[in-house]
Design brief:
Layout: E1 6-10, E2 21-27, H1 31-48, E3 51-57, H2 60-65, E4 71-75, H3 83-93, E5 98-103, E6 117-122, H4 127-144, E7 147-152, E8 155-160, E9 164-170, E10 173-178, E11 183-186, H5 191-198, E12 203-207, E13 210-213, E14 217-220, E15 224-226, E16 231-232, H6 239-260
Parallel strand pairs: 2-3, 2-4, 4-5, 5-6
Antiparallel strand pairs: 1-3, 7-8, 9-10, 9-13, 10-11, 12-13, 14-15, 15-16
């Protein structure tokens, strides 16, 4: 059978900076449902200032044969391959796709749980519910992010987030220091902006002019000693909060390590 693949881009930010684009797939064999959900996602993207690429799939077969999304809004009841079969196939071939099941039948939901199933939405879809479930899935994706693109004197540069040790404001620029000893001047962001981008990825702001990566901290006491041996001072006002945040970070790391054993 021949199927058409519909792809719609929505660029909702006019800022000239790197923005992560989320590929949102809608798989439903009813065109009216695809159009309705696409419009809902477009409004959510505009409201929350996020960039999305919407891919409409007419069938489960098309999901498996075409470009994969980051998040798939998946109808359960479809011809040829139903949503449960698509879930099983994706778990075997692409463990990164997050699934939000969409159905008008509550009784089917009990069968729809899975490794990458994040939520369920009941038809007809309400914008408020879609927003909540979609943003939850996007937050899961954000926690997976391992790279960041920043403007340096040399141009747009890709950085591994875990390799950033700390950043210090220097004049008009922000200077970041990397694990390998390299240093870069960031030309389009200050301390506040970079911290907002990285605060959910184990970064802390220890003063008005300095941010650090907890992953690259050796000791926090009167001084903060980084893995490269550099000693930093936190502001007196922030000192207690930073120590508490670092303790919580270490507890989280310990829980993850225990779970992996």
């Amino acid at each position: 059978m021949n199927y058409r693949l519909y792809i719609i881009y929505y660029r909702v930010s006019l800022e000239k900076e790197y923005r992560m684009m989320y590929r949102i797939g809608i798989c439903d064999d009813e065109e009216a449902c695809r159009i309705e959900i696409s419009e809902s996602i477009r409004n959510i993207a505009l409201k929350n200032d996020i960039e999305v690429k919407i891919i409409q799939y007419e069938s489960g077969i098309q999901v498996m044969d075409c470009e994969k999304p980051d998040i798939l809004i998946l109808d359960i009841e479809m011809e040829h391959i139903d949503g449960l079969e698509v879930r099983d196939l994706l778990e075997q071939t692409d463990n990164e796709v997050l699934i939000i099941f969409c159905t008008s039948h509550d009784e089917i939901m009990s069968k729809a749980y899975g490794q990458n199933v994040t939520d369920f939405i009941k038809k007809p879809v309400k914008d408020e519910e879609m927003e909540k479930k979609l943003l939850h899935a996007i937050n899961i994706i954000n926690r997976r992010v391992k790279w960041i693109f920043l403007n340096t004197i040399s141009g747009m540069t890709k950085f591994k987030i875990s390799d950033i040790v700390y950043g210090i404001a220097q004049g008009r620029y922000l200077k970041i220091y990397m694990l390998d000893g390299s240093e870069y001047f960031i030309t389009d962001k200050g301390v506040s902006q970079l911290y907002e981008m990285l605060k959910d990825m184990n970064f802390a702001r220890i003063s008005r002019s300095v941010i650090i990566n907890f992953e690259n901290v050796n000791t926090i006491g009167d001084e903060i000693i980084m893995t490269d041996g550099v000693k930093l001072k936190s502001s007196r006002r922030m000192k207690k909060q930073i120590q508490e945040d670092f303790f919580n970070y270490m507890c989280k790391v310990a829980r993850v390590e225990r779970a992996d054993r």
